[in-house]
Amino acid sequence: MIRIYADSTNDLTPELWEKYNIRVIPLYVNMGDETYVDWQNITPDELYAWSDEHNTTPITAAFSVGDAENALREAVEKGEDVIFFGISTGLSASCSIFKMAAENLDYSDHVAVIDSRNLCTGIGLLILKAVDRIAAGETDLRALESYVNHFIPYVRTTSVIEELNYIHRGGRCSAATALIGGALKIKPKILVKDGGLGVAKKYRGKQTDVIRKYYEDLEPLLKNADPDNVFISHTGRLPQEIIDEIADRVRALHHFKNVYVTRAGSVVTIHCGPGTLGVFYVANDQEAGW
To answer: CB of 11 within 8 A of CB of 2?
Structure first.
């Protein structure tokens, strides 16, 4: 049997984690002298309130080797093979830590670690590829690892950021970019490529109008995407109407088997800030969508 493990930045819903028996290892959020656990005892709205009050961004931290060992022991005791999905190694150490835990437990031969080179539900898309493959009868861990790795260059993770001060305070863009963006009301389209973050395009205007333009630019690509799954993921503080509108427009394409609407967890939220929305999918063409 192959069991799926993932760090908490995959941002699938708790319902999907339970449905597919996914073992999630949470990252940490440090707010002043207090440490909280992603998805467990802190909410994104509480993070916003603290961040706004202190004019700084909480610090995120990977789980420890001990945390990973404790989680992995469940699989060791049952004799399960494990495929682990982690946030890009360019953004966090969770993949390296999980590998170390497997080595410490002398279980590396039964563990595959997937560096998603992604974040948020971009990781979730890869997890669902593994879910489907396992459901189809795959029992060879290395074959599953190879299958999932094939899709990594095809995952498209983009989003439009409303408040640049969050991404700036998290060290993801320069102070000059944040100041210019704020003054000109620029809303960047952030793209995850080769494991890192970049700016693909700059919009200007009200965030709801920007989100509509972002979706219009994206729609031709969605019509030619892998039809299995698509995610509309957001970080809160958006009118529910705009979230529903984008989800309805994606459904109206009649292209995807599953359209998921999710809210990002605390770790991703910290760096993107409120008002962020993205559409995540798997491209059929490795060059399309960049």
So the answer is: no
> Considering the chain, what is the average pLDDT of its residues?
93
pLDDT in tens, 59-106: 999 999 999 999 999 999 999 999 999 999 999 999 999 999 999 999
**Angle subtended by helix axes 65-78 and 94-104, to nearest 10:** 50
Domains of the chain, start order: 2-47+58-153 (3.40.50.10170), 154-282 (3.30.1180.10)
Phi, psi angles (nearest 5°) of residue 187: -120, 105
Q: pLDDT tens digits, residue range 45-67?
A: 999 999 989 988 899 999 999 99
Other beta carbons less than 10 A from residue 78's beta carbon:
9
Q: By CB neighbour count within 10 A (0-12 exposed, 13-18 middle, 19+ buried), where does 89 fall? A: middle
Per-residue pLDDT tens for 19-42? 999 999 999 999 999 999 999 999
Residue scoring higher pLDDT (272 or 232): 232
Task: Encode 5-32 in three state secondary structure.
Answer: EEEHHHCCCHHHHHHCCCEEECCEEEEC
Q: Evaluate whether 70 touches 38 at the Cβ level (below 8 Å).
A: no
Rounded to the nearest angstrom, the gap between the alpha carbon of residue 224 and the centroid of all alpha carbons in its chain is: 22
**Cα torsion 220, 223, 229, 231: sign:** positive
